[in-house]
């Protein structure tokens, strides 16, 4: 011990220690053993005086599946305590055990549940499921409580109003008495026989009748005032010939009945007629010679153009609404126009005068003269009311109606030396008619067929090219059988929804058609191969015509209002 004390002193930190002092070395001596030690009791949760009122209600664990007592509605649906996720929406934060919400298992009669559900959906209130149904009061309902008080808590299965008694009829005697027996035709006891309505009833009736007449009344549009403008200086040349005279100085014989020996593909655009302000709906070439071009448009005008790029000859302000179709007679001296103003008009090609007007208060979709020389005074028109109507120009009256189609009639094409004509319709069928016989003798309709709103007869009269709405051109035989030629199907263009007119080259080498993209498509007739495609118009190319005397001249028109010549 003395050695330890000496070492501490030698270290220099401790003063010299007196070894005789008992307290100086007390910390180095071992403790004395104590026989007993007392343990103090510690209160870890002393009572604390609280100033604020503390909520003493029973709280339920949200994760509990079962409760041993019957908690109140407020306790069951009290908000949760503790930190919450601030990013949860109200719907996400709500307790739920299925995707659409929280469904708890409960024993409930099916009828009662359906009764309360229907009552809630009809009246807007239902019984509170947490309240004992034996003690029903105003507070027992949830939803529209005011409505529940008003209806006295009636459900949909409990009718509040008593059924009124049935009106009694006058007894009509025995069935054996023929004269006195009234049976079910007997009048009611309180029925009045007054046939004449009172003044108030008469006023109401007059108002109803006036409304019906106004609603059901067709637009009684007066035919538009016709106007013709000549765009050339003189109507006649130095020999007194009008522009209907077939020119002989254009390099080809326009009076020839023979088609060119060989036709070629058109390569480029050589002329544009841009006289129309809206989309062009149809173009027709002058019969046999093709030296004049007739065009109709949605701007209500019809124009007569010279196909040899001479400026516009004439234009007619013809109808009050868009013109749908046009057709020359055999000589070209007259033409017909059909428009959405429900009028068909006959025009003089040379003077531009409107000769006569025809209407049956329906929209004409197509119009055709009978091509027979002895029937040039008759024409047929396909109407929006599913009928084909035949008019006589001389009398202005309807002489025949062909009423067999189930949809609006789109095309009429004469075949078999003009003894018959073929019509197509929105009912997706093709019908063949004998002239002047209002019953179709041939009806072609297959489940796979689509509507065919454009039909063209081939130059040799043997084939009908039909533009089908499933983006292909179908070929039907035009003699006797009218069979579909399954080997000749022309595809590769998009026309669904548009009546793009088809045409043949004069030598039957090519088939041409416009499409919805404004392209001119040219197929080879023999192989049905798509040879050539030209971007012709900015909008739909609605019609394409191959000139009957030219080897490679094709005229197209589109909804961009332009007519173009290609060579």
UniProtKB/TrEMBL annotation:
It comes from Sander lucioperca. GO terms for molecular function: mRNA binding. This is Pre-mRNA-processing factor 17. Keywords: mRNA processing, mRNA splicing, Nucleus, Repeat, Spliceosome, WD repeat. It is found in: Nucleus. WD repeats lie at residues 316-357, 402-434, 502-533, 534-567. One of its GO terms (cellular component) is catalytic step 2 spliceosome. GO terms for biological process: mRNA splicing, via spliceosome. SUPFAM superfamilies: WD40 repeat-like. CDD domains: WD40. The keyword rRNA processing does not apply.
């Amino acid at each position: 011990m003395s050695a330890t004390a000496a070492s501490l002193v030698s270290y220099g930190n401790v003063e010299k220690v007196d070894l005789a002092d008992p307290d100086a070395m007390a910390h180095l001596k071992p403790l004395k053993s104590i026989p007993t030690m007392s343990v103090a009791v510690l209160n870890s949760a002393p009572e604390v005086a609280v100033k604020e009122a503390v909520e003493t209600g029973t709280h339920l664990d949200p994760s509990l599946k079962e409760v041993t007592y019957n908690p109140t509605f407020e306790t069951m649906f009290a908000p949760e305590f503790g930190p919450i996720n601030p990013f949860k929406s109200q719907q996400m934060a709500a307790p739920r055990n299925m995707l659409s919400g929280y469904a708890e298992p409960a024993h409930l009669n099916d009828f009662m549940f359906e009764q309360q559900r229907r009552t809630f959906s009809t009246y807007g209130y239902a019984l509170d499921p947490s309240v004992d149904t034996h003690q029903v009061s105003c507070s027992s309902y949830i939803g529209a409580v005011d409505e529940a008080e008003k209806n006295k808590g009636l459900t949909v299965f409990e009718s509040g109003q008593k059924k009124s008694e049935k009106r009694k009829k006058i007894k009509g005697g025995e069935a054996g008495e023929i004269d006195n027996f009234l049976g079910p035709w007997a009048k009611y006891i309180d029925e009045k026989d007054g046939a004449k309505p009172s003044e108030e009833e008469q006023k109401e009736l007059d108002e109803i009748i006036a409304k019906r007449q106004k609603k059901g009344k067709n637009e009684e549009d007066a035919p538009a005032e016709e106007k013709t403008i000549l765009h050339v200086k003189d109507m006649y040349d130095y020999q007194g010939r009008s522009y209907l005279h077939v020119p002989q100085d254009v390099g080809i014989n326009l009076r020839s009945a023979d088609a060119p020996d060989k036709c070629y593909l058109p390569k480029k655009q050589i002329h544009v007629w841009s006289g129309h302000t809206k989309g062009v709906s149809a173009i027709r070439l002058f019969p046999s010679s093709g030296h004049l071009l007739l065009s109709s448009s949605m701007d209500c005008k019809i124009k007569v153009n010279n196909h040899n790029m001479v400026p516009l000859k004439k234009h007619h302000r013809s109808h009050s609404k868009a013109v749908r179709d046009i057709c020359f007679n055999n000589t070209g001296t007259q033409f017909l126009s059909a428009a959405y103003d429900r009028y068909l008009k006959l025009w003089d090609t040379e003077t531009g005068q409107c000769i006569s007007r025809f209407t049956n208060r329906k929209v004409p979709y197509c119009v055709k003269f009978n091509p027979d020389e002895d029937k040039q005074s008759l024409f047929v028109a396909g109407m929006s009311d599913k009928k084909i109507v035949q008019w006589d120009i001389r009398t202005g009256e309807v002489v025949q109606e062909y009423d067999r189609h189930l949809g609006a009639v789109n095309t009429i094409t004469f075949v078999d030396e003009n003894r018959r004509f073929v019509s197509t319709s929105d009912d997706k069928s093709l019908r063949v008619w004998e002239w002047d016989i209002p019953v179709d003798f041939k009806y072609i309709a297959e489940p796979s067929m689509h509507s065919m709103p454009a039909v063209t007869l081939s130059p040799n009269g043997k084939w009908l090219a039909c533009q089908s709405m499933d983006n292909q051109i179908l070929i039907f035989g035009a003699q006797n059988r009218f069979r579909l030629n399954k080997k000749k199907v022309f595809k590769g263009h998009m026309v669904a929804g548009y009546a793009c007119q088809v045409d043949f080259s004069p030598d039957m080498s090519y088939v041409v058609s416009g499409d919805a993209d404004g392209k001119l498509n040219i197929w080879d007739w023999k192989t049905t191969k798509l040879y050539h495609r030209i971007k012709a118009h900015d909008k739909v190319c609605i019609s394409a015509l191959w000139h009957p005397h030219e080897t490679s001249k094709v005229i197209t028109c589109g909804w961009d209002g332009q007519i173009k010549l290609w060579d």
